[in-house]
Specification:
By secondary structure, this protein is α+β, with helices and mostly antiparallel strands. It contains 7 helices and 6 strands. It is elongated, with a radius of gyration of 25 Å.
Length: about 190
């Protein structure tokens, strides 16, 4: 049996050494289990639950099972991978009635939907004072927000003109911030 350690996440690049297999085999196993890795910057990770599934799968393969046989034993209802981020299968009305109508994977789909909704940022701050505090900090420190950042903060779809005033502040175009226009923020 593979040794287990108490971790939150493990980098994918460490898994070939953990199991003594080629990198391609690790990816085949992840795909067979329907695991969606956690991606941060240029690295991918698996969490503790995913690692436990991979460990169980490895043990079964070591005992002579094929990848498909072992995957069916370890995770009989793998989560389907999504082709488009945010695209999920919506359960039918019958599936929403209760446990007797529950479809395989319904709980995982609901959890994925909740996680996606939790990650979405509101277009404007919920606390109206937060907007003024951020604008004041930009003016005090001479920070130059990009067009997109300023439009999001002000709750506008776009910004136009060389300058404009809103909420007691003047916003003036002031060079570039990457590929976008930078804006100088002044308190009136």
């Amino acid at each position: 049996m593979t040794s287990t350690i108490d971790i939150d996440e493990l980098p994918l690049q460490s898994l070939p050494d953990r199991y003594g297999v080629a990198r391609s085999q690790v990816f085949n196993r992840i795909k067979a289990l329907g695991i969606e890795t956690i991606k941060r910057k240029n690295k991918a990770y698996v969490n503790q639950d995913q690692l436990a599934l991979l460990d169980d799968l490895h043990d079964l393969i070591q005992d002579g099972k094929t990848l498909d046989e072992a995957a069916a034993i370890v995770n009989p209802t793998p989560r389907q991978s999504r082709e488009t981020p945010g695209q999920y299968i919506v359960p039918t009305a019958g599936a929403m009635l209760g446990p007797s109508y529950e479809t395989p994977g319904q709980l995982e789909l609901l959890q994925a939907l909740v996680a996606t909704l939790a990650q979405q940022q509101p277009s404007a701050p919920i606390n109206p004072l937060a907007r003024f505090e951020q604008l004041q900090a930009m003016a005090d420190h001479d920070w130059r927000p990009s067009t997109q950042d300023l439009a999001d903060l002000l709750g506008l779809a776009s910004l136009s003109g060389p300058s404009f005033e809103r909420y007691g502040f003047r916003f003036t175009r002031a060079g570039k911030n990457g590929s976008q226009t930078a804006w100088k923020v002044e308190k009136l």
